Amino acid sequence: MMEVFQTVDDLRQARWENPTKIWGLVPTMGFLHAGHLRLVEQACEQNDRVGVSIFVNPAQFNNPNDLEKYPRNLEQDLDMLKQAGVDLVWTPTPQMVYPASYQTYVDVEQITQKLEGATRPGHFRGVATVVSKLFNVFQPTRAYFGQKDAQQLAVIKQMVEDLNFNLEIVACPTVRESDGLAMSSRNANLSPTARQNAICLYKALTAAKDALLSGQQSAEMLRHIMTEIIESTAMTQIDYVSVAHPQTFSELEKVESQALLSMAIFVDGVRLIDNILID
Amino acid sequence: MMEVFQTVDDLRQARWENPTKIWGLVPTMGFLHAGHLRLVEQACEQNDRVGVSIFVNPAQFNNPNDLEKYPRNLEQDLDMLKQAGVDLVWTPTPQMVYPASYQTYVDVEQITQKLEGATRPGHFRGVATVVSKLFNVFQPTRAYFGQKDAQQLAVIKQMVEDLNFNLEIVACPTVRESDGLAMSSRNANLSPTARQNAICLYKALTAAKDALLSGQQSAEMLRHIMTEIIESTAMTQIDYVSVAHPQTFSELEKVESQALLSMAIFVDGVRLIDNILID
Prior knowledge:
Two copies of one chain form a homodimer.
Chain A: E1 3-5, H1 8-15, E2 23-28, H2 34-46, E3 49-54, H3 64-69, H4 74-83, E4 88-90, H5 94-97, E5 104-108, H6 115-119, H7 123-138, E6 142-146, H8 150-163, E7 168-172, H9 192-197, H10 200-213, H11 219-231, E8 236-244, E9 259-267, E10 270-278
């Protein structure tokens, strides 16, 4: 039986009903898709119990309009999680997570400076803060995050190491639509034409990957290849196109071994991100 | 048998040897005195097991000279803790707590602005960060802090509430020498004459308290009473003298019900703090 709670006290009571059970946590902002379900599936395989949080975290939205437009459908989410075999769901209100007296924030300083951190001020502070809270509320043994948010994954791993959270971060591969578009709750905000054009992100990433595997080591050239494909697609606006070191997120000049190919693109005003990790 | 470990891994193994036991944590910077032992004693009464950390936390020292001069005596500390019945002691090196890649900090924003926070920039950021780490390393059910560091206590309580740490903060009264001087590791740095003069903090606080209980409600007058006593004592230099709200730490004009009388005074160059809470 899946249980759903709003308050921390109720959730904790259910969480600790049997203290010997091992818990996995899948933090989400809801409007769930196959990518989330992949995380849940893996959590179910590796733990006795699985908890999911559904909370559109205001602290990580630098743009109030983006927060307002973020898609929501709690009823459908709960149906999907029930089907998936989840044990416990936390669906707090913003006031429960950030009461009026709220004033504590977690900052991961260096690796938040580039890419998403550079174009979305305060975003990772909001992420690190809410994830700290989720870790303390669920006290899981493992927590699951998608590779689609590559920098978020790195920020959270760094935070876990730095603050000595007693848990393991499990990274799961990006799940894609059949045409390659990375699954994202934000895809719901795309018009049919924009949805078609949104394929350009994956096309650009794979073109750069192919060039790299064919011997093109110039990061400048790889960024150029990706930029050309995006710019030749209607309705798009580039936020950034990057060939960076996958741990520091600094832009590379020459790709020696590892690289994170990544981008953030507005497609008809909807901000989409995607990446391919080259190892 | 008391066990002493340096690494997080060793400590965690001992901490979780019997997961059904309830743990109390007493975080310290070492050079232990009767005030620390009072915290340990209370922790022993209320929990199955008691852990103590001994770590002079560089992140909370705004002044490198103060950090260097901070008294240390690990051997004596361990003897005292063994006598007191402590189960587990963590004595990490600074490099273990803050490795080269370290970059995560916890900020409590509002209540850290006044008093200690105002005169020691970064101090409470260092405190909140290291205490978060200690909570995650020990995962205690209760953690013990002295009322002598009144603002620190409030900052940690706020952090626990905000970040949903699953533990209880227990405040313990200030322990004093027979002449009223609040116990502090820093007292060891006082020359015999400075030690005599250091009584002025408690004298000033009790004089203000007596005036308040006799009907003096003007915070200005109460600060004046304290300032006079400090200034008439040789070797002293006032950092601040305060009559503030005990939750917000804003200076009061008129004392209605609650007040925190507090001060930070350099006595022969040694910075001492003390306070009396009026309820």
